[in-house]
Amino acid sequence: MATWQIAVILVKIFLIVGIFQGAVAYMIMLERKIAAWSQDRVGPNRAGPFGLIQPLADGAKMLLKEDVIPGYVNKPLYVLAPAIAIIAATIGFAVVPFGPAGIDAPTINGHPIHFQIAPNVDVGILYVFAIGSLAVYAVILGGYASNNKYSFLGGLRNSAQIISYEIPLGLSVIGMVMLSRSLELGDIIAWQDTNGIGIIPAWGILVQPLAFVIFLVSAFAETNRLPFDLAEAEQELVGGFHTEYSAMKFGMFFLGEYLHVITVSFLTAILFLGGWDVPFVGLGVEDTGWIAALIKVGVIFFKVALMVVFIMWIRWTLPRFRYDQLMNLAWKAMIPLALLNLIVTMVLIQLFRGVG
Amino acid sequence: MKPDDPNLKRLEPPKLTVLEQTYLPQILGGLAVTGRHILGAAFGGTAVTVQYPEEQHVPTANYRGVHRLNKDEQGRVKCVACMLCATACPAHCIDIVGATAPEGWDDREKYPESFVIDELRCIFCGMCEEACPVDAIELTGLYDLTGLSREELIYDKSKLLSVFDMTKDAEPMKTGNPSPSLPQPTTPLDPEGPGPRSTATAAQLPSRS
């Protein structure tokens, strides 16, 4: 690999990680704003105009707070857990495409620039799920290392939840994978763009509506977002696996959670909302020049932002699940429905496309 | 009523339709409600929050805030050290040391030499106000009770009387309004000029706004 290629990759890594970690700060502010608005309040508005400096104040608070490590914890694991949370959430972005790459794409030294840290990874979506499932180690280690039975129970509870919901999450995606015959996220977007009927695109939400609902619900549970946030149900459950964490170590769990939300929003946008595809405008898959590429990057970021807002909107709409309801939903409703969706998709593909 | 009583009316929750059993219509309905609130508060200005330091909240007339000790027309403390408030107080936060009234205070036998309310213990129930036979102690609408030390929040007689001076214009006494035309003595305990007890009745007083 040439030096310039490594440089390009490093620049992309710094850009993407920087952008998303910054975005997380503002997502926390957006979350607080949406929380306030849905309760007819104003929300943070003291730090800077419209409270726009609030994320900096929050960050400063996280860093400057006393960082307590209780004397009774298993120190190496205790420190490792939040690190795993943030690393697992960050490296998932490696295969997520942010924009198109094609023959007339912007180039460096004659090579097209991919809006993706690791382009052309054939197992794209499998990689995202594999990395996403690492988050469970953060949860269970955080609970175990805290050496506190409530934290430990919280860790077990939460890891059981994450593992349970990973099954319907994975199953719901297989339908789109079978339709597009690719695990590469860029190919899935291209399939959605090219296989529409007339001007109606074949977005995942239209061709796989049940899978969309299952994916969305499982994604909420995967990211510990309400109504599945049993990790932080202090009132009902004496806190969760991060009860013993303070200051920036708690902040890292939080950061990991929000990065996870961004990943999930990207996956939803790519798998079910057509990625950077814009219907009715005439920007096709083949348009990958500078301007078209930038527009498409804007489009996918817009869709992701909409998803993030939707996730926060849901948070202030639905009440929290009870733990047994949560498990029943996963095992008795989500998994059978996902399997049903899979079988129906399989049969329809065989009927309409023929074998092969 | 026994469980097998024929008069017992059994209510069954209505059966959910198939669509309702998926909960999706309800979820969408809930999203519509919160969405309306979010848009209203974000763009329609329907947020109800009071922006406190800039906007002051005006409590209703029956709000129970910081206490004050009322003064009569001569500016003397109205309290007659009968201890009823201290007795009625469920939090035991009122401490009164009574003494024989100074020379010339013809309308009473005792007055409080010291009158201390521990605002940290007070639960602002208003029982002291109810118990007072001479309407000497009242709860004002002051709600921003803060202090930098615990000692600051133990209010002695002078502080309680200064609360009266601070709030008497905004919140006239519920009974016995001191007439502003009378000359005000220099100190609250000035034994000069014994006056008649206030004869004003509630009907003659301006209502507390």
UniProtKB/TrEMBL annotation, chain A:
Instruction: Tell me where in or outside the cell this protein is found.
Output: Cell membrane; Membrane
Q: Which organism is it from?
A: Tautonia plasticadhaerens
Topology in the lipid bilayer is annotated as: Multi-pass membrane protein
The Gene Ontology biological process annotation of the record reads:
aerobic respiration
InterPro entries linked: NADH_UbQ_OxRdtase_su1/FPO, NADH_UbQ_OxRdtase_su1_CS
**GO CC, one annotated term:** plasma membrane
Q: What does this chain do?
A: NDH-1 shuttles electrons from NADH, via FMN and iron-sulfur (Fe-S) centers, to quinones in the respiratory chain. The immediate electron acceptor for the enzyme in this species is believed to be ubiquinone. Couples the redox reaction to proton translocation (for every two electrons transferred, four hydrogen ions are translocated across the cytoplasmic membrane), and thus conserves the redox energy in a proton gradient. This subunit may bind ubiquinone.
User: What keywords does the record list, in alphabetical order?
Assistant: Cell membrane, Membrane, NAD, Oxidoreductase, Quinone, Translocase, Transmembrane, Transmembrane helix, Ubiquinone
Stored Pfam families: NADHdh (PF00146)
Which GO terms label this protein's molecular function in UniProt? NADH dehydrogenase activity; oxidoreductase activity, acting on NAD(P)H, quinone or similar compound as acceptor; quinone binding
Q: Under what name is this protein listed?
A: NADH-quinone oxidoreductase subunit H
Q: Where would you say this protein principally sits, based on its record?
A: membrane
User: Catalyses which reaction?
Assistant: a quinone + NADH + 5 H(+)(in) = a quinol + NAD(+) + 4 H(+)(out)
Superkingdom of source: Bacteria
Keyword NAD included in the entry's annotation: yes
| GN (gene name) | nqo8_2
Supply the EC number(s).
Answer: 7.1.1.-
Q: Which family does it belong to?
A: Belongs to the complex I subunit 1 family.
Keyword Nucleus set for record: no
How does the record describe its quaternary structure?
NDH-1 is composed of 14 different subunits. Subunits NuoA, H, J, K, L, M, N constitute the membrane sector of the complex.
Please give the start and end residues of each transmembrane region.
6-29, 77-103, 123-141, 162-180, 200-221, 258-276, 288-313, 333-352
UniProtKB/TrEMBL annotation, chain B:
The uppermost taxa in this organism's lineage are: Bacteria, Pseudomonadati, Planctomycetota, Planctomycetia, Isosphaerales
Q: How does it assemble?
A: NDH-1 is composed of 14 different subunits. Subunits NuoA, H, J, K, L, M, N constitute the membrane sector of the complex.
Chief location of this protein within or outside the cell: membrane
Q: Which UniProt keywords apply?
A: 4Fe-4S, Cell membrane, Iron, Iron-sulfur, Membrane, Metal-binding, NAD, Oxidoreductase, Quinone, Repeat, Translocase, Ubiquinone
Swiss-Prot/TrEMBL cofactor(s):
[4Fe-4S] cluster
Q: Which PANTHER family match?
A: NADH DEHYDROGENASE UBIQUINONE IRON-SULFUR PROTEIN 8, MITOCHONDRIAL
The UniProt annotation places [4Fe-4S] cluster 2 binding at 89, 122, 125, 128
Domain (4Fe-4S ferredoxin-type): give its ranges: 67-99, 113-142
- Name a GO molecular-function annotation: 4 iron, 4 sulfur cluster binding
Family matches, as HAMAP family: NDH1_NuoI
Listed under GO cellular component are: plasma membrane
Where is it located? Cell membrane
Which EC class heads this enzyme's classification?
Answer: translocase
Kindly give the SUPFAM superfamilies that the UniProt entry links to this protein: 4Fe-4S ferredoxins
Enzyme Commission code: 7.1.1.-
Q: Per the annotation, how and in what number is the cofactor bound? A: Binds 2 [4Fe-4S] clusters per subunit.
- Which protein is depicted? NADH-quinone oxidoreductase subunit I
Known role: NDH-1 shuttles electrons from NADH, via FMN and iron-sulfur (Fe-S) centers, to quinones in the respiratory chain. The immediate electron acceptor for the enzyme in this species is believed to be ubiquinone. Couples the redox reaction to proton translocation (for every two electrons transferred, four hydrogen ions are translocated across the cytoplasmic membrane), and thus conserves the redox energy in a proton gradient.
Positions binding [4Fe-4S] cluster 1 in this chain are 79, 82, 85, 132
Using the UniProt annotation, give all residue ranges assigned to the region (Disordered): 170-209
Q: Which Pfam families match?
A: Fer4_7
Instruction: Provide ranges: composition bias, Pro residues.
Output: 180-194
For membrane topology, the record states: Peripheral membrane protein
Task: Return the similarity comment.
Answer: Belongs to the complex I 23 kDa subunit family.
